[in-house]
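Methods — Computational structure assignment.
A single polypeptide chain was analysed. Its primary sequence is given first, followed by the predicted tertiary structure written as structure tokens.
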Amino acid sequence: MLRKTLLLSDAAIKLDGDTGRFAGYASVFGGVDSYGDTVVRGAYDSTLRNNGKPKMFFNHDSYALPIGKWLAAKEDDHGLFVEGELTAGNPQSDAVRAALKHGTVDGLSIGYYLKKGDFDETEEGRVIRKVSRLVEVSVVTFPADEAARVDLASVKSEDIDGIETVRDFERFLRDAGGLSKGLATALVSRAKLIFAPGEPDAEDAEAKAYADLLDRIRAVRIPQ
């Protein structure tokens, strides 16, 4: 699962007194983010209609109790606008509310899936025209640094099946914070299909690329 984070200055997050309600932009259209991606208007329309509102966590901790719920998630001319309410009585929610009021929490971040055909590749990066599924929107402490990891409980076989190029592998591994042995094995199998021997002149280059890829997979933390 991919992550994108906005600083509060971009998210324009606002608290509604002491009610635990707040609102802001979880994604802004038209700009180029630190990954070289540009999200265009309409990208979230399908997932919001088909999958409903995302979950709310703190720092993408989807194994913990949600800190609240999103009351609204909709697109406007500026971006993906969300309005949420923190859960009263949840100690983590109370801590997040205090941090928001004090300004010590720095952003909003989305957790989402892309499939082949959801984006166009350019020399600068990707133009994302559709988000297949918006899973969650988190209140986060740090921008970007927390963004590049995979929620292992959410990884599905089709995420690996959608890898077709070296660039796809690079992006997948960049977003991976940990891989199970099963997922690593599946990745290697996928690599064998992509880096299968081709023309004689290309064999040496593909063999080196395949070896480099295997080194990267082994470098990813794999639980024992």
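Note: The first helix runs from residue 8 to 11.
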